[in-house]
Amino acid sequence: MKQKHFIDSHKGATLFAVIALMACYNAWDNPTAWLYLGTHGLYGLLWVTKSLSFPDRSWEAPCSLGYGLMIWAGLTVYWIAPWLICSRNIRVSPAFGGLCVGVFGLGIFLHFASDMQKHMQLKLAPSLITDGLWSRLRNPNYLGELLIYGGFSALAMHWAPFAALGLFVAAVWIPNMLRKDRSLSRYPEFAAWKKRSWLFVPPIW
Predict the structure, then answer these.
(1) What residue numbers bound the domain in which 144 lies?
(2) Considering just the CA atoms, what is the radius of gyration of the chain in Å?
(3) Sign of the four-CA dihedral 188, 191, 192, 193
(4) Is there a contact between 13 and 44 (Cβ–Cβ < 8 Å)?
(5) What predicted TM-score, i.e. pTM, was given to this entire model?
(6) Number of folded domains in the chain?
(7) Is residue 119 within 8 Å of 58, Cβ to Cβ?
(8) Residue of 60, 91, 92, 126 with fewest CB within 10 Å of its CB?
(9) 201: which strand partners?
(10) Is residue 204 part of a domain?
């Protein structure tokens, strides 16, 4: 089996997990729960669609069942936010909910558009990608994913979902980005691109 099989199945299961939490806590009248279902549930379905249409090579690596189940269990920490919303009947104001959806929407654009740009360029003209969404950011897809998770995690109005997100950023995302930088440094034009671009979050890093 491949890593993507465990990642994709978890992302796709999120919609049903949130519905199950809403049923468990009878949160059908909670608009924030529905807002969370619409954002995180949609993201999971879009991820599966992306994996089928223009997959990321980094998740094609084979893995054992044990390691795959560890991936699945690790990703489950992202379900802390809907559990908090449903179990504590958390309800955000319309203005705050709108802000969260706006952040989520920007993240969706960055994540999927940059992954599509990368997929098509590597398919049609393999080379170092230094234009478009990649011109000033070396990882616009990761920034998009940060905004996606930040957008719907904020709906829980709690620190725990952000702690889980921070753990993934520190333990998985940043090491992957630095590893990719080392790999891409073999291209002569990489040094100039690195000098004029941010690794992840402008203008911080």
Answers:
(1) 3-196
(2) 18
(3) positive
(4) yes
(5) 0.94
(6) 1
(7) no
(8) 126
(9) none
(10) no
